[in-house]
Write a structure and sequence with these properties.
The structure holds three protein chains of three kinds. By secondary structure, chain B is of the alpha/beta class. Chain B has seven helices and eleven strands. Chain B has a single domain, classed as Rossmann fold. The C terminus of chain B is likely disordered. The chains are: A alpha+beta, B alpha/beta, C alpha+beta.
């Protein structure tokens, strides 16, 4: 057996209680990092997964890119006087996407686009009994929408497809249904901006998994929405589903340039929440960094003290003919061993905790971003591998400086010290 | 003369590697105040072990030890500690001076434990002791700044700090050169004669042994000879005087 | 005496002592940072919620048809397609009730509103909004209404008939401001123009995005009712809300809500986060304790001879143990102190990090609670951990048999 490994191993065994504590430090650190990462990434992936599954990857809006400039402003730089424009009265004309037919035809042949859904959105009040609730009506073509967001499979009561057959049918989100006490077949009233109201019949209740949607979205057939908004044959948005949702930003840019309308990738649409996620991640990993520091420090100190207190042993080893390198490596191997054992145990402990966390359910649900019933934990191979190597690096790096120092002990000096 | 220590049928057995080693057996000894004794014997005869028992640093496996009327075997560890602090002074072959304190503070330490003197008095006494041992100008020095011989003298001063009834020394000059050894033994004798402190010293140094009032010889864990000023107190194997 | 020895031993091995001190300081600092942040979120949230939610609210009955309606009375086997009646309820005898409630113990202010839903449109955009018909003076007593107005107009709502105050999010969506005319539509088909007289900002994004205010008297025309449908109470101690709500419910027999119950789920979420934080910080403390225990134990092992000689001149085993515990205590004392300083620094850093939480709140930087309780807790924990960590080494030190050690030479 390699001599360094031998002396390193024996040193660990001789001080086994100390070694145990070292291993325990690594174990706990790795376990905690594993669990927290599993939690964080689980949440993030779940959120992103649900989002890209139930909303468009790129949305082409009806806001034109080049708004016409106010004529008066053209003169604002002249010396004729100061120009300030107040109370710009917006036009009553509804935003709509012109040439929508051509745009959709173009999208159909764009590589990477796998589904298109033309929609019209308008805000309404939904009323059932004496309960009134704000909501946004989302007029779409059921089959196109289903191709984009898998809507049919998200029904928890009724069938979304019935929108095609039921006259003035409506699909409501789970949370709205609960708030209004809606069931299949109920008749609800939708009140629109000019004050008139329309009766719609509930044909399905869905759960998309994203609270903000389940709490405010109402799905109807496109033509019914057009009637509600009084905008016949118009659409306000085109939703696009891509083969690769990560590339949404690039597509959004190219669409905007091509069609002249403002586009929104799903990342931008959810930037609030995504940036919140970044903050949470940064925060937790900062603290985990602190944990690593504390553990590294403890390990470094043990090895450092080891070298100091065993100077005589080291001198004797040199006298016996071991090289500096061999002595250093001996300590180094101690570090590696602690790292490997601690890492493995840490993974095991972490996994146990992950399993435990997975079984916990929340007593109060709703209003958290995911409407989740419990912790969503990620179990991915790269997670385990990374944490394992973190553990090893932790031990090895902490041991490396003392290991180096161990090899530089001057035997004559030590023996003279007596 | 007052009897200050008595060993009644004391034995000591040590366990090592699963085997029982009988270090001492059937030791019967009595010590009186003011005695100046040497304990001699070959290595492995059990002299150091006997000394540790005398100093209440260790318990006998069998038998009783009575110091100043107190039965050691019946005392709690706290009581033993108090006894060691107040009545016994120990000097070992190695000085064991604590590195965190300077010479003066090391000598004061046992007095702090006893808590009987005021800090000023403690300091004065420590200074006097060190001065007597020739370390007047080294009192503030830390162990790292003192030689082995000087440290051994500090250790002696420390052992004497609380004016112990009994001074036990285990090869106190083993690590010292001949000049320093002589200083130490002369000092011991002086103390013995001036203050009547009892000295029991384990040693190999034949010069020193010749100066003692009483010589106890151990062999294989038994007392084979106990001679005092020419009188035989015990008989074992006869030996030349 | 113990102190003297313990302190000297700490001084002698300076580097190791510093290492232990650092471990404690790190744990304490991070504990303080995380607790302050956690508490900051809670406090900030609670403050904002309390600012916009009435502590206690009496609401008029809301009718909701339920599936088995009438089944029992009419002995039916199945009930299909329950149709809902249009029936809007108000609180009867509101004035009398308000007077009664204002004399209740713990109640600081009382106000009556009518709150309904409406569609607000401007140009080509429309928003579904919550319309509060209020008495501005009472509303201000309840939650500092005037203070949240951007242009500070106390009499704004009285300045013109059909005046409306819109939430900042609403203003942003419409790109409109004071002076613009909006169209308001409610479910009874009411359709009128309102003029924006001021802009309101509570700081909670969700709220500012869809809330508008009009005068209570307008609700007659807007919703066809002649009275308020909610009475709001402000309490001296918001945390008594549950108790007061129960008392009011008893007294009046009406629906009574309280802010604590209404926000139960968010508080549960905060509670979960707290738990996770504690989990991580707990681990840091344990790892720090391991470090300290290790250092100290190694020290003990290497000072066996010194310990033996101390026993020889009379320091008993118990006292030796005490000396090491004392070391742990002193190290903890110093380490926790530095930890407090680190925690302080981290807190300040957090507060000033340029991050925004616009998803939920309008603010820059993390909300940080400056609580002396947290600092004390952190300090105390550092001390406890340090002493606990020195427990095992102290025991080991006390168990050293002097004879054994000296025998070995």
């Amino acid at each position: 057996m390699n001599l360094s490994v031998y002396i390193g191993y024996r040193a660990l065994r001789a001080n086994y209680k100390t070694s145990l504590v070292l291993v325990a430090s690594v174990t706990m650190t790795v376990a905690v990092i594993l669990v927290m990462s599993s939690l964080l990434f689980g949440f993030r992936n779940e959120f992103i997964g649900k989002t890209v599954n139930s909303t468009a990857h790129v949305r082409i809006t009806s806001e034109e890119l080049d708004k016409y400039a106010q004529p008066a402003l053209l003169f604002s730089d002249s010396d004729a006087g100061i120009t300030e424009i107040q109370h710009i009265k917006p036009t009553q004309q509804y935003n709509k996407i012109r040439n929508s037919y051509l745009i959709m035809k173009e999208l159909e042949i764009t590589p990477g686009v796998i589904a298109i859904s033309p929609t019209l959105a308008t805000n309404v009040l939904i009323k059932y009994g004496s309960i009134i609730y704000p909501a946004s009506v989302y007029g779409m073509l059921p089959d196109s929408e289903d191709k984009m967001t898998d809507l049919y499979s998200k029904a928890i009561a009724g069938r979304v497809q019935d929108l095609k057959t039921q006259d003035k049918g409506i699909v409501v989100g789970k949370i709205i249904a609960a708030k209004l006490g809606l069931e299949l077949g109920n008749l609800v009233k939708l009140v629109v901006r000019d004050g008139s109201s329309f009766d719609f019949r509930v044909v399905a209740i869905v759960e998309t998994g994203i609270s903000s949607q389940d709490d405010s979205k109402l799905w109807v057939i496109l033509k019914d929405a057009q009637i509600l908004a009084n905008q016949y044959n118009q659409i306000t948005d085109i939703g696009v589903k891509l083969a690769d949702y990560e590339s949404a930003e690039t597509y959004a840019e190219s669409f905007a340039k091509k069609f002249g309308y403002k586009t929104e990738s799903w990342q931008i649409a959810n930037s609030n929440i995504l940036s919140l996620l970044v903050i949470i991640f940064a925060n937790i990993y900062f603290v985990l960094g602190g944990l690593l520091l504390a553990a590294a420090f403890g390990i470094y100190n043990v090895f450092s003290m080891s070298v100091i207190y065993r100077r005589r042993d080291l001198a004797i080893m040199q006298a016996l003919g071991l090289t500096n390198g061999q002595i250093s490596w001996g300590f180094f191997y101690q570090g590696i061993t602690v790292g490997i054992i601690g890492g493995i145990l840490g993974l095991l402990l972490g996994q146990l905790l992950i399993e435990y966390f997975s079984t916990l359910t929340f007593s109060q649900t709703g209003d958290n971003l995911l409407n989740a019933r419990g912790f969503v934990m990620l179990k991915a191979w790269w997670l385990y591998v990374t944490c394992f190597f973190t553990g090893i690096l932790l031990a090895v790096i902490s041991a490396s400086l003392p290991a180096y120092r161990a090899g530089t002990v001057d035997p004559v000096e030590v023996i003279r010290e007596g | 003369m007052d009897k200050i220590m008595e060993l009644q049928d004391v034995g000591k057995v040590l366990l090592a590697g699963g085997i029982d080693f009988t270090i001492l057996s059937h030791i019967n000894l009595t010590f009186y105040k003011g005695e100046y004794c040497a304990i001699v014997g070959n290595s492995g005869s059990g002299k150091s072990t006997l000394l540790y028992l005398l100093g209440a640093l260790d318990h006998p496996s069998s038998g009783k030890i009575i110091i100043d009327g107190y039965d050691l075997t019946a005392m709690s560890s706290q009581e033993l500690a108090k006894l060691r602090n107040e009545k016994i002074g120990f000097v070992f072959q190695f000085h064991y001076i604590l590195p965190e304190f300077n010479a003066l503070e090391n000598v004061i330490l046992p007095m702090m434990v006893a808590g009987k003197l005021s800090p000023k008095a403690q300091r004065e006494r420590a200074e006097t002791l060190l001065a007597t041992l020739g370390l007047a100008d080294r009192m503030q020095y830390y162990p790292s700044q003192l030689s082995g011989g000087q440290l051994q003298r500090v250790a002696i001063a420390r052992a004497l700090a609380n004016e112990p009834l009994l001074v036990l020394a285990d090869e106190p000059t083993g690590n010292l050169d001949s000049r320093n050894s002589e200083v130490v033994f002369n000092y011991f004798r002086k103390l013995n004669e001036e203050f009547g402190q009892t000295f029991i010293i384990v040693t190999h140094n034949t010069n020193f042994v010749k100066n003692c009032d009483r010589i106890i010889t151990l062999e294989d864990g038994k007392v084979i000879s106990d001679k005092m000023a020419g009188f035989c107190l015990q008989e074992g194997r006869s030996e030349n005087q | 005496m113990y102190l003297h020895v313990a302190w000297r031993q700490i001084l002698f091995r300076r580097r190791q002592s510093l290492a232990s001190i650092f471990s404690v300081a790190l744990g304490v600092g991070l504990f303080i940072m995380m607790s302050s942040m956690q508490q900051g979120f809670e406090d900030d949230f609670t403050e904002r919620v309390i600012a916009v939610t009435p502590h206690v609210q009496i609401t008029a009955e809301r009718l909701r048809p339920f599936p088995d309606m009438g089944k029992e009375q009419y002995d039916l086997t199945k009930v299909l397609h329950v149709q809902a009646f249009d029936k809007i309820e108000i609180i009867n005898g509101a004035t009398y009730l308000q007077n009664q409630l204002s004399t209740m113990e713990g109640v600081v202010a009382v106000g009556a509103n009518y709150t309904g839903q409406g569609l607000i449109s401007y140009g080509n955009r429309e928003i579904a909004a919550i319309i509060h018909g209020i008495d501005p003076e009472k509303e201000n007593q309840l939650n500092g209404f005037y203070g949240k107005l951007k242009f500070g107009g106390r009499n704004a709502l009285y300045m013109t008939s059909n005046a409306i105050v819109i939430g900042s999010g609403v203003a942003k969506t419409f790109k409109s401001s004071v002076g613009d005319t909006l169209t308001v539509v409610t479910d009874i088909g009411y359709h009128e123009l309102y003029r924006v007289v001021d802009i309101y900002q509570s700081g909670i994004t969700a709220y500012d995005n869809k809330t508008v205010f009009v005068l209570l008297k307008n609700s007659k025309a807007l919703f066809g009712v002649d009275g308020p449908n909610e009475i709001n109470l402000k309490l001296k101690d918001p945390y008594q809300a549950e108790k007061v709500a129960a008392a009011v419910a008893d007294m009046t027999g009406l629906n009574v809500k309280n802010w604590i119950a209404e926000n139960a789920n968010i508080r549960a979420e905060l509670g979960r986060r707290k738990w996770i934080n504690q989990f991580i910080v707990g681990t840091i403390f344990i790892v720090a304790a391991f470090g300290i225990a290790n250092i100290m134990t190694m020290n003990v092992m290497n000072k066996r001879r010194d310990i033996a000689i101390m026993q020889a001149f009379g320091i008993g085993a118990g006292s030796i143990g005490k000396i090491y515990l004392l070391q742990g205590f002193i190290l903890g004392l110093i380490g926790a102190f530095f930890g407090v300083i680190i925690g302080f620094g981290l807190n300040i850093g957090l507060e000033n990090i340029p991050v925004s939480f616009n998803a939920q709140l309008t603010r820059e930087g993390f909300p940080v609670a400056w609580s002396s309780r947290i600092f004390l807790e952190g300090y105390f924990m550092g001390l406890v951990i340090s002493v606990a960590a020195s427990f095992f080494p102290a025991r080991k030190a006390a168990a050293i048999l002097p004879a054994e050690v000296i025998r070995r030479g």
